[in-house]
Amino acid sequence: MTTPADLKYTKSHEWIKQEADGTVTVGITHHAQELLGDLVFVELPAVGRKLKQGEECAVVESVKAAADVFAPVTGEVVAANADLADAPEKINEDAYLAWMFRIKPTAPGELAGLLDAAAYQAIADADRH
Amino acid sequence: MTASTLKTTPLNALHREFGARMVDFGGWDMPLHYGSQIEEHHAVRRACGMFDVSHMLAVDVLGAGAREFLAYVLANNVARLQVPGKALYSCLLNPAGGVLDDLIVYFFTEDRFRLIVNAGTAEKDCVWLAARRDAHAPQVDIKPRRDLAIIAVQGPQARDKVYAVLPEVRAAGENLVYFSAAQIGELMLARTGYTGEDGFEIILPATQATALWRSLHAQGVAAAGLGARDTLRLEAGMNLYGQDMDETTTPLETGLAWTVDLSAARDFVGKSALQNLRPTRHALGLVLLDKGVMRGHQKISSAHGEGHITSGGFGPTLERSIALARVPLAVRAGDEVQVAVRDKLLCARVVKPPFVRHGKVLIV
Fold first, then answer.
1. What's residue A64's pLDDT?
2. What's domain B280-361's architecture?
3. Which residues, other chains included, contact B295 with Cβ-Cβ below 8 Å and sequence gap of 6+?
4. Strand B222-223 relative to strand B305-315: parallel, antiparallel, unpaired?
């Protein structure tokens, strides 16, 4: 699967989509779900929770391991994808469709520091070798 | 460890051809899964799957006195093996009663027994056995068989799939009772496994392994990796050496008291230590009542004291998290305990394993 060009990324394998209303949608990358294997449990941040960039805010657990998901930007959680609680495998099926939570950023300058698709792809490729 | 120094089985290239995600498993380059570990798990519970377990080692124990030698080094009693082909699960103990390994011993003739030992302990086992042999039974020959491959074919359809591919084993296979084996030419067919399902473990010359794997695949048998093997054995309530027990635990603390006969007159390595032992902990199963996934090493608090998880994970057939745990003796099936899962205390119910056997969920 190719890394979507319209998204931003982090080194810790989150993807970030900038929405028209100024919020950002966050999920984990295809490469991340591939590393984890079949996902069986997802824990999402509560709506209203204030996050700092880099803070642990969600958990994805596969048959194999648990992994933290980090807030890619500072801000408040305005939505969480409750569908994932009963169907964490949706992340395996399409990691870029199965969003996890939405943040209203309070430090929009942080967005410029995120990785673009090419830079993230290079990290993922290096991981595979 | 880099890929170039990892040990490989005769099926290594084929795993890659089948799209396996390969991992370092105790120094062996082994398939974790071929796409979806959960689908492979379900294939074994519902139909049929196959595993390359050639990293495990067959060790032949040959010559006059083989039975007496094994009666001394193994904790379970090989005197129970009277019918040729019969298998016995046993621990190999050190003098302190600690578990050096768990294995299956097959009896063929008085001068031919075969052990199947774990991969990670194989070399240590051979050294250990040779030292006891030198001291007690110098005429016995201990022969590691790295020239053999082992393919486990497991699931409700496993036996029929094997007969379809190897018609020459059908007659012997249909007569095999559970936990026994037959030697048919160069091939050993054992009705054993590590999944809680029916099936065979086929031990054959390494040169024939690739052809058998391809034929089974052509019959619709799903390739399954070590990931599915682990969730299947966990649901089946079977111990994993190195996780659920090791040299510092005795069979009495890990749910294996049934494999040790302390009342018999026979002496064996570790017996006197076990006779003097008053275990304070025992092994039981846990089913997580809250949401989350239990993992190995997590702490358990109970009304009777603390314990810990030895193996934990997600059971795909149960669709929830289960674990094997070592807990104070007073903790009993039906109790509720708390498990420290990451930063939370979650509620779990104590059960007596197995959780699943022959496709059926045994816990409520």
1. 86
2. Beta Barrel (2.40)
3. A66, B309, B312, B313, B341
4. unpaired
Spatial separation of the C-alpha atoms in residues B53 and A98, rounded to whole Å: 36
**Residue A40 contacts B, CB cutoff 8 Å:** yes
Other CB atoms within 10 A of residue B280 CB: 10
Pairwise CA distance, residues B92 & B122, whole Å? 12
CB contact, 8 Å: A35 with chain B? no
Query: Given an 8 Å threshold on Cβ–Cβ distance, is A85 in contact with B295?
Result: no
Asked if B227 is an interface residue toward chain A (Cβ–Cβ < 8 A), one would say: yes
Examine the pLDDT at B3 and tell me if it is beyond 90: no
| Confidence (pTM) | 0.94
Q: Which of A38, A41, A61 sits opposite B37 (nearest CB)?
A: A38
Identify whether A16 is part of a domain: no
For domain B1-279, give the CATH superfamily.
Answer: Probable tRNA modification gtpase trme; domain 1 (3.30.1360.120)
Mutating which of A56, A64, A127, A128 best tests the B interface, going by the most B Cβ atoms within 10 A?
A: A64
Closest chain A residue to B23 measured between Cα atoms?
A35
User: Residue A31: is it exposed, middle or buried by C-beta count within 10 angstroms (0-12/13-18/19+)?
Assistant: buried
ipTM (interface pTM): 0.86
**CATH number, residue A31:** 2.40.50.100
Q: Which of B155, B153, B126 is nearest to B142 (CA)?
A: B126
The torsion defined by the Cα of A93, A97, A98 and A103, in degrees rounded to 10, comes to 160
Residue B1 has pLDDT above 50, yes or no: no
Query: B38 and A85: CB-CB below 8 Å?
Result: no
- Residue pointed to by tokens 């007073």: B330
Which residue carries 């745990």 as its tokens?
Answer: B325
Q: Phi and psi (nearest 5°) for B45?
A: -70, -35
Pick the residue of B2, B23, B32, B38 with the most A CBs within 10 A to test the interface with A by mutation.
Answer: B38
All residues of chain B having their beta carbon less than 8 Å from the beta carbon of residue A39 are none
Q: Is residue A128 part of a domain?
A: no
CB contact under 8 A, B37 and A61: no
